Fold FAD-dependent oxidoreductase.
Amino acid sequence: MGGGIGGLATAIGLRAAGWQVCVYERSDTLPTTGTGLGIWPSALRALDGLGVGGAVRAAGLPQRSGAIRRPDGSRIVTLDMDKVRERHGEPVHLVSRPALLGVLSQALPAGVVRFGCPVDDVTALRRDHDVVVAADGIGSRIRTALFGDRHGLRYAGATVWRGTADLDTEVGGETWGVGARFGVTPQGPGRTNWYAVLTAPEHHRPALDDPDELRRVFGHWHDPIPAVLDRYATSHVIRHDIHHLAPALPSYTAGNVALLGDAAHAMTPDLGQGACQAIIDGVALARCLSGGDVAAGLRAYDRERRRPTQRMAATALMVNRMSQARRLLPLRDAVLRLALSLGPPA
């Protein structure tokens, strides 16, 4: 079990269900930097079930309505948080990854999370523990050990830069160009999360330095994008290719092992649901195992979570493909408006 969002949520739920839990985390500490996450109402309800929903809401801020725009600033479609609030009782909450991990870790007693303890071989864990939870992320070694290389990571056709900037933005949203996207969301007073997505070959390395490359592509787009990029030098920026898991796993369990989060259903970030689904996975797994019958509990977990998360992953990949369109952009925009009119995955 890793000490990320899904692993910590699972640990809280299992301890509440009476299990003795140990979390093995490869890193030496929790991260102190990181960009923002949108926590949707379904995940907030799951966090409420763990007793930490209020603390997560307090650590972030509710997302205001925004828009998806074209590079000149014209609006393609509105992202209506009022509609989310009407349907689900509250909007999406924006919270930084370090803040969310901090809330989750504080809900566990000292010593439950063992830092600096990578798990490279699941065999001993399976022998010595009643249940092993594989929450070891997108590059899960446990997934590969159980299901082989056939179910692996596939390049989604784009690379992404993520960072934060010392800048105020009142609302968030995305801007879609031709094979390129830029997104901003408020993180708090004087702080903005941003990300830039560029359709490119795998392992793309631009001829220019990263800041100059982003200014070349996005610097003439509407405000506040140029202002964000002007602050690139003071941002904590990560860059990586976007991958997803394919083909989908035939099961989220194998023997006494359960996979969750990115280890089970790594998806492109286009719906903003990766962290949310990991939280919901963890709460569902803990509930399914609360009766004490491990085999029955794992079967119930697989039935409950595999199909919904795989549908979510397929939808995210479809949006990813649509956002990378280079032709028929008016048709793309019309399809996007129709899809959002049916309601977001809250």
